[in-house]
Design brief:
Elements lengths: L10 E3 L5 H10 L5 E3 L4 E3 L6 E7 L2 E6 L24 H4 L4 H5 L3 H20 L1 E5 L2 E5 L1 H9 L11 H15 L5 E5 L6 H13 L6 E5 L3 H17 L8 E3 L7 E6 L22 E5 L14 E5 L10 H8 L4 E2 L2 E2 L2 E6 L8 H9 L16 E5 L25 E2 L5 E2 L3 H11 L4 H10 L4 H4 L11 H12 L8 E7 L8 E5 L5 E3 L11 E4 L2 E4 L5 E6 L14 E7 L11 E7 L4 H15 L3 E3 L5 H8 L19 H6 L7 H18 L20 H9 L9 H13 L32
Parallel strand pairs: 3-5, 8-16, 8-17, 9-12, 9-13, 13-16, 25-28
Antiparallel strand pairs: 1-4, 2-3, 4-5, 6-7, 10-11, 11-12, 14-15, 18-19, 20-21, 20-22, 22-27, 23-24, 25-26, 26-27
Helix pairs in contact: 4-5, 5-7, 7-8, 14-19, 15-16, 18-20, 19-20
Length: 748
Amino acid sequence: MQKDVQNKLYTTLSDVIPKSVLTNKNKSATWKYGYNEKYDIVVISKTGQIGEIIRINNISIALPLAPKKIIKRDPSTKLQYWERKEYPKQLKRISTIFQWNEQPAIFKNQWVDYIEQEFDYREEGYWFYNNGIPTYLTGSHYMYLQWTKIDVGYPDFREANRLFFIFWEACKADVRSFGLCYLKIRRSGFSFMGSSECINTGTLAKDSRVGILSKTGSDAKKMFTDKVVPIGSNLPFFFKPIQDGMDKPKTELAFRVPASKITKKNMYTVEEEELDGLDTTIDWKNTDDNSYDGEKLLLLVHDESGKWLKPNNILNNWRVTKTCLRLGSKIIGKCMMGSTSNALSKGGNNFKSLYEDSDTTKRNANGQTKSGLYNLFIPMEWNMEGFIDRYGMPVLETPASPVLGIDNEKIKVGAVEYWQNEVDSLKSDPDALNEYYRQFPRSESHAFRDESKQSLFNLTKIYQQIDYNDSLILQHHVTQGSFYWKDGIKDSEVIFRPDKRGRFLVGWTPNKQLQNKYYIKNGKKYPGNEHIGSFGCDSYDISGVVGGGGSNGSLHGMTKFNMDDAPSNEFFLEYIARPQTAEIFFEEVLMACIFYGMPILCENNKPRLLYHFKNRGYRGYSMNRPDKVYNKLSKTERELGGIPNSSEDVKQSHAAAIESYIEKYVGLDFEGTFRDSEDMGTMYFTRTLEDWAKFDISNRTRFDATISSGLAVMANQKHLYLPTKKESKISINFARYTNTGTLSKILQ
């Protein structure tokens, strides 16, 4: 089943709040800005009233109730779109609050309503009709569109950026969030949006600090001097705070007093005591793991965080700077982080980890993600320059007739077709293609594509499969869940339950007749479905390591060719996790084997899992190494089973097993050798595919998924490794690939 990704950046929710509750609280204007635990919504309205509730990346966000009066550019629907209002010439000549105070009363009376309204827009947001639809802008977005001067004048309105700012406002409002981790496309406007937010926050706050970081110190400085400072200088006088120092500083903007709202009540005077003392600063720091260490920040703008090169590490930096945004358990500041990604080996892997740690569906007991941030990805087709119509909407598909763009140029080709044409032209150059994917991703996996030069396996097929998986609603193919002993009684019957918090991903479960199937031989239990498939496992022995790290335990289940009611030659289970204790991992692995009635092949250098099987009476489920006859096994191997990972022969056989599987069952088989040339592979576990793409045979310890999946393949093909009568070493040469051209080519 294909994903309708093009039109699903957000969904509108209904029946989240009972109608009577919604009506009564709106009538009394008692909705509070922030996270509402009762209804699991983030209220970004500052009027006390809420209207539409939308869901962006698993965050339910309550927008303000639309006012009765909404700005309408033109009575005609087709002529309704965002249009920046020109700053009145009469006010342009006033540069400071002091000059305003000197103006005659008649002048102030003429303009005080206009100024007060601008402050209201900044605080509460702005509504306008866009192609006949009432459209809400957050205050930050309004400040960006109306008052932020950028390199091309003033920004365009884009629906993608509207949703970005709504999500950012939710991050600010949510007491559980440290901010935003935004996976972006090139030239999406993030640097200017971040710079605008620096000025917007810094000119309102008292006794606060706003910080800027980028991939290098010079980049951070450039962002400060070329974007932040000019944006601040171009603000109208009523938003400008009283500033200390130079007009064009190079290291720090210092504000004595934030901009105060001008109203009818206070438009004639300014209290002298308000001018006492230094107030808020905006500055930048050199790129370092310890940047801003010990500082207290109200806002940190983190630009190009996916491009930090060694020795700097974005993960280490975030661990330090995160403490700058909190006092004890209270979050007092927010981070706006955004970037495209470098190749994984060039800083991208750390950013990928941080992005994945910001998954809003995975929270700890305090309601926070692992990183504290909330991640957001907007596909390239939604924000690609040259493919935005005058209503700020993306032209996704090629139109039947040209569409007028936001730049008044005609759009003849849709963003998706244009992108695909570029991709097709780069297929002969994998590294150029992957760079294009990273710059203009349509999926998260595109954004984190690695360089292909060092890959051991056929990357063409792996990425074909990943792209295909990205186009699927994987929930229809893979179920997340957990295994349990029935009624909590061990060694009775194992059951599987779908569970969003479960550590197992399952693509197939056997019918009732095949579940928990075993037989007894010589008083020992053996799996009853060995003819259907096997498991491979990369275990660990120690529950925790110093610093809380350590590799994951990994388990894969795979079927063989079979005549039963089961798929053939297909991976059906993936488990990559590190539970709180090793014993939990051992028991979960055991339950999976029992439920499926299949044996398991493990590396025996970490024997605790194998001892667990033996001590629980399931030694018969643990496979012996297939490359030796029983009487040639060591005493430990006879006792526990398993296969060593130190042998070069085993390493080569393991890599060759995966290589063979990829060639036959992953991606497209253009030659039609193993299946119909138009049939895509059925390997739905993208995390494992990505591990294969990065696998380094000389440093296998980091690739848990590759180890266990390869062992599953070897277990199913154990007949290939049976020793001959002449005991000779196994020597299986596996191919290497150039990964150049339309298809990866085998090196001779």
